[in-house]
Design goal:
It comes from Caenorhabditis auriculariae. Helix content is 36%, strand content 14%. The chain is α/β, with parallel strands linked by helices. It folds into two domains: 70 residues; 274 residues, Alpha-Beta Complex (Spore Coat Polysaccharide Biosynthesis Protein SpsA, Chain A). Strand 3, helix 10 and strand 4 form a beta-alpha-beta unit. Helix 7 crosses helix 14.
Amino acid sequence: MLKASRQTDRISIRNCFWDEGTEELRKGHGGVEVHDVGPNLKEKKEIGMRVVRKLVRLSFQPLLQRRALALSPFKLLLLLFSWVIPYLFLTNYLESRLLPLRALCYTQSDLLSSEPLASDFPTCINKFFPNWTPTGSKCELDVMPPVLIRPKLPENLERVFVVRSGPGSPDYRNFIRKTWKSYVEKLVPVIFVCATSLNDTLSSEAAVHNDILQFDFEDSYHNLSWKMMAIYGFVLTEMPTVKQIIVTNDDTIVNATALEQLLDMSDEPLMLGKVSRGYPRIFLPWLPWHVPSSMYPNLCYPLFVQGSSFLLSREGASLLLENVCKAPLVHLDDVFMGVLANCAGLKLIHSEGFDQHVFEDFVVYHYQYSRHSAAHLSSLWQSSSLL
């Protein structure tokens, strides 16, 4: 079951179960239906949880029995860091290598807080970029670029679902069209947003499907922030009734049943998704997430919502677009949005169901550390109970 609490900023996902006799998903205790992948995974998870609970109970039993003083300082130190070795084994390579830097980032309380670094926007930006001064050069991020292809959409929409895609990724777009798009479109229209590349075939594809929005600038990883601003500009300029923008990447799987529970958002400036904190700037130049110190001088990032999937209110999009040219560009769009959100007062709300890299209890499934092929995503879909 997926239960979304509207009273707190953290949305928990729990209480999924599988009926082995009928292979039927059931409801219970005020939750809503969510799809699972089968009893084997559940049994393994339950066994793992029992082992973890037993280890925690054995580890903390002396403390609970008020015999803490009987433990030597060395044993207390071992107990304090007992989670490190399992963490290194269970997390992916990049996460485990970043552990020392993440530990350091968790000592920087100002960047862990949702409170802005300063009360006014210019001072706040200056704290993130102390050596930056506005040059007066023309900024075009707050101007919507020319539109080459427009999708066909109903009038008077309240929401729009945007899938960020590259011109050379028709296999991912076709995967989505054949799988979860039809389920999500019962709730909200789905469109694909691209920029340009050499020899793209988007015109013919758009003529068939009428679900592509294409802007006239180069589509690249380093232009993601530009693409996001273009999307917000298009919605704010040409879709006056839209109150909510849902954004995902094209290498994702969306659980429409779970998503439906999150669509009733307030009109205040807010962004809902997986809020990340304590993340260091990647200084290894061969990684796609590399950001040089000349672009972002700090070791650690502020709170930001992972860019693979999130919900954004219209007021939130307007706030970002209004302030985007008042700060130096960071090409990682989610980090850049995090900086702007901190200084502009955009509220970030955490939801466990977004950017999930385990195919269970998710709103949006996305494997962050490598790009699954469209064929692999299709096999995941076929093996699930989302059909």
